[in-house]
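WARN retry 2 of 3 for item q-0093 after timeout on previous attempt; input resubmitted unchanged.
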Amino acid sequence: MKKYALNKRVFAFVSLFFAFVISCSDDGPVNFNEETVFVSKEKIFDYTAAELLQIATFHGAEIAPEYDVEAYKITYYTKKKNQAPLLCSGIFCIPKTQEKLRGITAWQHGTMFYDGGDMNEKYSYEMLERTIAASFGYISVANDYIGFGKSNSEIQAYHIAKYTTSDCIDLLKAAHNYIQNENISIDYYLWLAGYSQGGYNVVAIQKEWEEQKYSLFELKEVYAGDGALILSNMASLLFYRDTYDEPGFFPLFIRGYNHYYDMNLNYSHIYQPEYAGKIDKYYIDKDDTLYFLPKKLDSLFTESFINDMRSGNGSVYAKLIENNLNNFTPASKLYIFHSKGDELIPYEIGAQAYSYYQSVSGNVEFVEAPNDWTHSANYVDFLKFVLAKLN
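OK item q-0093 returned
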């Protein structure tokens, strides 16, 4: 196992990450089909290389941004659960240069309970981190996810590999549409990076990309930070605890699985009476109660549901198994980055995933985070690791 040494700095929780590719021209919508999914783009920000250097220095990253960057809001089509077209949105950033671009960096952000916040404000962490990669000579993109941005009327497909991959791959198709239409000079290489929920997402995307043999871009490397790559193992481990610092994560699984798999779950079997009839409404109403659910697990969940998670029984646990990612052989280089101090997604989960991938592939490396920080603080070390790789 490799330990990556970086300067120590602690920051607030910012789960978000590079997510896919570029978008397109200003000519208005096109008809949805399997290959042409781009709809529109709108310029929102400009960044100078000097601004980005200040940001990198603030993060303690020893990098030198080279180019000024333009950031755009894009829209594109993916598919709903019923296969009908679904309009989605994201951000893409492109450097201001006539030189041939190095490829595309694609990041996936971390868990958000509902649509909102400042993710796409100019000086939010999310926007700044995407633009630093673009300043190295890449196109850098992030999709908003189904359930956010233009698709915010949909239920979030939380840790559901099928929708995680289709949303992002359709963004890659939109990027390819744009590159071809605008005759952009670029090496057709792709890098994926994500942390927390995004760490799970990028490995799910890698699996789908390689198994379906997509050829739009050649996948070079994948950076997965503190992700729950083996969901069922994580649930079994965490439900043996008495408390959990972010109890709102679990209802995201349940709500998404109930909708996308048509499970018709009996919430009175899952939640204590105080929450069984309210939990979905918290998401619909964007209620901050989600951030203050009881950390004591038996105050939120029933004894029978806790026992299901501990023993590996029940329909929800079966869906966790279905969405595990320890079931393919990585062909492209996969880096699994994890902190021993992660209290939300335990280090053991990253180590177990690494052990599996190492047994089937020589293209995996485990990177132990240098500072043993908590889940939120460790994101900064992950970001510096990825930027150093890309630079």
